[in-house]
Amino acid sequence: MINEVNYRVLYGDTDCGKVMYYGNYLRLFEIGRTELIRSAGISYREIEEKKGIILPVVEVFAKYKASAKYDEILTIKTLLKELKPYKIVFEYKIFKDHQLLTEGYTVHVPINKEGKIVRFPEDLYQLLASLLKK
């Protein structure tokens, strides 16, 4: 399943040349994965508060192909690439119209509130796995 979210580049997202600052693409990755997870029927907040799981980023990759500029509307396309009992990988593509601007991925591990890596709870694992099947 690929989830799509539109985002308008804010002035605060840009550098003095009104080009989107490279680090802000990682925030767009976060928006994409948050909405992808929400489309499965659970929010990040519920994962943290009800399941006691935090999903820190342990690896990130981004490849920049073209620049986004102030006030442009971007489309963030996100999919769940891989799910293991101790790891989850999201893949992202950011477009302006049909032009690919940036692509990348993030790797996350489930940890408990004490900072220890734990298995995904089975019900959460199955819910996330449903994103692989769509």
UniProtKB/TrEMBL annotation:
<dbReference type="InterPro" id="IPR029069">
    <property type="entry name" value="HotDog_dom_sf"/>
</dbReference>
<protein>
    <submittedName>
        <fullName>Thioesterase</fullName>
    </submittedName>
</protein>
<dbReference type="GO" id="GO:0047617">
    <property type="term" value="F:fatty acyl-CoA hydrolase activity"/>
</dbReference>
<keyword id="KW-0378">Hydrolase</keyword>
<dbReference type="InterPro" id="IPR050563">
    <property type="entry name" value="4-hydroxybenzoyl-CoA_TE"/>
</dbReference>
<comment type="similarity">
    <text>Belongs to the 4-hydroxybenzoyl-CoA thioesterase family.</text>
</comment>
<dbReference type="Pfam" id="PF13279">
    <property type="entry name" value="4HBT_2"/>
</dbReference>
<dbReference type="InterPro" id="IPR006684">
    <property type="entry name" value="YbgC/YbaW"/>
</dbReference>
